[in-house]
Design goal:
Helix content: over 70%
Radius of gyration: 19 Å
Distance between the termini: 29 Å
Order of helices and strands: HHHHH
Number of domains: 1
Number of helices: 5
CATH topology: Four Helix Bundle (Hemerythrin (Met), subunit A)
Number of strands: 0
Oligomer: single chain
CATH architecture: Up-down Bundle
Largest sheet: none
Structural class: mainly alpha
Amino acid sequence: MLATLVADHVRWRRDRSERDRDTLRAAFTAYLTALSTAKDAFSRAETSPERVGRGHVAIAEHGVYAAQQQLELVAQRAIVRRAGSATLSVLDFHDVVVAGHAPDSSEYVDAWRSARQTRAALIEEMRKALQRT
């Protein structure tokens, strides 16, 4: 009977770990998808100086904030911090585009590169979390 209880407990822990990993993976995917969708949309945005600083409205329309809130519920603090940085870098990219900087300008390239680098750092942290779970 003790062996059965131990086996059940081991199975329960393994199932729980798999559910936790699936929950994290779903939250990670939702956030990264929303962030990429927003960044892609921003890269095609029209110049509109009055929209500089108002990217938070546009990014919310792409579901980034909702996905980020999901992360806050299930992910570790390091991931939440990196997600916040990734969101801010995409907001900065938005401002550069709507301010009218051309794709070959240093401002545009720097903002695009920063968004890419913060996203890459976030993905690396997410991979580590999935391996630990």
